[in-house]
Amino acid sequence: MNKTQPIRLLPEPGCGGCQPSHSGCGGGFGRPCTSPELRGQPELVRCVLDSLRGVVDVEGGNIVDRQLVKALRIDDGEAELTVSFAPSCGIGRDLAEGAFQTLRRVLPNTDVYVRHAV
Predict the structure, then answer these.
(1) Total structural domains in the chain?
(2) Which intervals hold domain MIP18 family-like (predicted)?
(3) Going residue by residue through the chain (118 aa), what tens digit of pLDDT does each one get?
């Protein structure tokens, strides 16, 4: 049984219900899809996303609502988060570290990986 089925928590405004791979989605008006790819138990994924809202940038926006989270997979003792800010940017490093520490706190017995989208 595959426990990492794609899930959809809430439809994004302007998005016509993208597929998890985002193939063919233009966000409604030629914009890229803003919905992250989410895999794992829906309750746990919701909990993690809610916790990641505590990771904020200098302007006060959090990484979930600012659509910096591109993917989250939680399965078999591993959590992988993909974010879209530049890893070389000072604030990007701080946000990545904040996300990593949040995942470690929320998922204490889980191997945590934070990756940067290109």
Answers:
(1) 1
(2) 48-109
(3) 445 445 545 433 333 334 344 444 444 444 555 688 999 999 999 999 999 999 998 878 899 998 899 999 999 999 999 998 765 666 888 899 999 999 999 999 999 999 988 6
pTM: 0.71
Q: Is residue 77 domain-resident?
A: yes
Say how far apart CA 34 and CA 61 lie, in whole Å.
16
Name the residue range of residue 53's domain: 36-116
